[in-house]
């Protein structure tokens, strides 16, 4: 991926999010790649070029927070925007201290996503 645009990866088991979110990210001026699972993202050869990760919290297999922890343990410091369909308590404060920029509840607005991306990619 050598477009010169910041690469934003989307990891979500929801097919509609994997199809629509990359299109929106491209409209906002980013390069985007979608993954169906945490494991699929971990196998991505250009993981080190990822400048922001839009990550679903609840997924089969490895959850979003588990992937985030795995990346930290591997030495990656990729800013994370968590997304979730669940309402209620957000993220444990410890996650916000480890590179989590925002937690957006689906459906979120384009403006909320844009603000989170600006905060993530400086």
Enumerate how many helices there are, as a single number.
5
Looking at the structure, what is the overall shape?
A: globular
Fourth-tier CATH superfamily name: Response regulator
Overall average residue pLDDT: 90
The helix/strand class is: alpha/beta
Q: Can you name the CATH architecture?
A: 3-Layer(aba) Sandwich
* Computed CA radius of gyration, to the nearest angstrom: 13 Å
Largest sheet: number of strands, sense, barrel closure: 5 strands, parallel
Total domain units: 1
N-to-C span? 20 Å
Could you provide a short overview of the structure?
The chain is of the alpha/beta class. It has helices at 15-27, 38-42, 64-73, 93-96, 110-120, and strands at 7-11, 31-35, 50-56, 80-84, 100-105. It has a single domain (7-120), classed as Rossmann fold, CATH 3.40.50.
Topology readout:
Blueprint lengths: L6 E5 L3 H13 L3 E5 L2 H5 L7 E7 L7 H10 L6 E5 L8 H4 L3 E6 L4 H11 L2
Parallel strand pairs: 1-2, 1-3, 3-4, 4-5
Keywords:
122 residues; alpha/beta; 5 helices; Rossmann fold; 5-stranded parallel sheet
Characterization of the model:
With 122 residues, the protein is an alpha/beta fold. It has one domain (7-120): 3-Layer(aba) Sandwich (Rossmann fold), CATH 3.40.50.2300. It is built from 5 helices and 5 strands; from the N terminus they run βαβαβαβαβα. The protein has a 5-stranded parallel beta sheet with strand order 2-1-3-4-5. α4 links the parallel β4 (80-84) and β5. The chain is globular and about 30 Å long. The model has no long low-confidence stretch (mean pLDDT 90).
């Amino acid at each position: 991926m050598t477009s010169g645009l910041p690469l934003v990866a989307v990891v979500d088991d929801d097919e509609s999010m994997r199809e629509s979110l990359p299109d929106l990210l491209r409209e906002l001026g980013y390069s985007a790649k979608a993954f169906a699972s945490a494991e699929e993202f971990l196998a991505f050869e250009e993981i080190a070029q990822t400048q922001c990760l839009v990550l679903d919290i609840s997924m089969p297999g490895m959850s979003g927070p588990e992937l985030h922890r795995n990346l930290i343990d591997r030495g990656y410091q990729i800013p994370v925007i968590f997304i979730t369909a669940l309402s209620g308590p957000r993220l444990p404060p410890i996650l916000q201290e480890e590179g989590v920029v925002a937690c957006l509840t689906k459906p979120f607005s384009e403006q909320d996503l844009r603000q989170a991306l600006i905060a993530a990619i400086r």
